[in-house]
Every structure is written in structure tokens, then in C-alpha cells.
Amino acid sequence: MDEHLLGLLDIGGRSPRVACLPTAAAKDGERVWRGWQERGVAHFTRLGAETIAVDVVDRDTADDDDMVRDIAGADLVYLSGGKPTLLHQLLDGTAAWAAILGVLDRGGVLAGCSAGAMVQGSHIAGLRGGAGTDGFGLLPNTVVLPHFDEFPSLAGDVVKRLVGRGRNVVGVDGATALVRHHDLFRAVGRGSVTVWGPNGKARFHDENLPEGTLGIAG
User: Fold this and answer.
1) Is residue 10 predicted with pLDDT exceeding 90?
2) What range defines the domain where residue 91 resides?
3) Interacting residues of 142 by C-beta distance below 8 A, sequence separation 6+
4) What is the total count of domains within the chain?
5) Best label site of 68, 71, 93, 166, fewest CB within 10 Å?
């Protein structure tokens, strides 16, 4: 899956540059967020990338010149798991988030695991009946539910609350990604992507989503 993401980069013959941000896990203690970083760095390094850990763990570090420079120089930015609402709160309106958008604008990739995926929708679902919050809206009018096959009872409860409220609901299985590249959405990885969209429910595995599945231009 991540090899697919790196393969989307148009960077000539050089090695891709990856920045790993543990921001979503910032309140779980330094041991935890550094663990996210270390796993990310080790993983992308094995895939042949020049990978750095970027310590964006609060609003101050999200506006730190050195941190922002590291993000801006990346081809792929990876957002760790943790708490999606915290991730949005710490990055929203910061220089770090502006740098991430800059990476996307010049053809780079933003990848997110768990909380890092949820925050890319327009709305972050509240779990176990909790109130939802705003996401960054990279996928307009959409709620992203990761780990979709791993917690079926929880996922089912959340879907029941969300479907029919005018938003797309996207369930992404473990070891799977919904990839948006140019004018296409594609399900990539071992599992499937389940979509409740303008045309009803559909499930996709290792294939492109038909145009209009999410009601969003590619």
C-alpha cells in the first residue's frame, strides 16, 4: 500500500523524502508518540525513502520554523494514529498545516493512519455516541471510518448514526487505503473500502471507484 503511494510521486530518479508526524498521539506521552515516529521512520526507510521524524506535538512546535521547513521539504507527509480531534486542534491554522497543503499543491502525498485518516474528512465521527467535530475537509462532505473490519460492532453503530444525514461515509479496512490521485479514487491494499454515497452503498477492493461514487471531483 505505501509502495503504491510512493510510486505516485513524480520526483525523477531521486529517493522520496518522507516526514513522519506523531501529532495525533501527542497527549499519550512521549514514549508513545516517539514510538509512532520510530515505526514510521523504520517502515518508510525500508521502502527506500529518506525519512525524518518531525516533533510536532503542540501548537508551538506546529509553528516552529525548523519543523515547518522539514515538512515543506517532504514528498510524502505521514500522520500517525492517536486522537483525531486533538490532531485537528493542534494543526488547524498553523504553519505546519500550511506546509502540508503546500506539499499537496506541488504533487506530494498526505497519508494518514487511523486518526490521521479520520481528520482528512469534513467531519470526525464521535465514537460510542459522542459528538462529532470538524475535520480538515480534504474530502468534502465525508466522514472517514478507519479499522472498519477490525471493530465491526462499533463500526456498525457509527454507520447507523451517520448514514442518511447527507454526508458520505467511508469505511476503510485495516491495511487498506482510499487513495485520491488526480481525477481518480482507488481502493488499495489487502482489504476493502465501503462507501455510503449519493448512489447508495458499494464496496471496493483493489480497484478504481466509479466516477460520482462520493459525489466529489477527483
Assistant:
1) yes
2) 1-113
3) 121, 122, 123, 167, 168, 169, 170, 214, 216
4) 2
5) 166
